[in-house]
Amino acid sequence: MIRKGSLAGVLFLLMTAAGLAVQVKPERRPAAKGAVVRFDAGLQKDNPVEIYLTDQAGKLLYRWSTNITNDNHLFLALPNASPGEYRLVFEAAGALSLPLTVQVKDKPYAWGALPWKFGDANGDRIIDQKDLDLIKRLRGVDRNHPAWFWPQELGVRGLTLDFNLDGVVDDKDLAIARRNMGARGPAPPKSADPRKPYGDPRWIGLKLVPPVLDRKPPPSV
After folding, report:
1. Which of 23, 74, 190, 220 can bridge 41 by disulfide, Cβ–Cβ 3.0-4.6 Å?
2. pTM of the model
């Protein structure tokens, strides 16, 4: 007994030999319209985030800034992006730079919490004793203190050191930094061409093509 699948294969080979088979090209997926990824920011609202889009080799493609919403979400809008995986680097004061590969779909998509490593109080890309000393000096700073929003002689805002988002810089934040002692973060990516414009891809008007296609997407939340 010949299976249908086997029979179809034999017929295709015979048609090919006779020059009758038609080769069907794979369908290309259109660019996503309004592709948006939502993250749980894990940061104080007034701590802005820089986002860098890179290719697989780490070369900078675009860079733009975004703010955190009242419900502590961060939205990455790529309305001209083709669905696929994108390599990103997130940067915010008080945390090490965060490289991440994100799956962009053709509909709104929730990624989950950004896995920051907190404790880089002075922004030198390593969490060490200098950072602990800075956090200790700002213990007790909350929203009612000028140093919460405006850096004084320390050069750091208190809100960027409130790692657990409880509204005050205290020993709990210090403990978080201690757990990350010795961790290092990457420098933000640089453009290979200094003349290339940065900014929101919506205003540049270029179609983005996913630079990374061979990795599994993160779990949906």
Report:
1. 74
2. 0.75
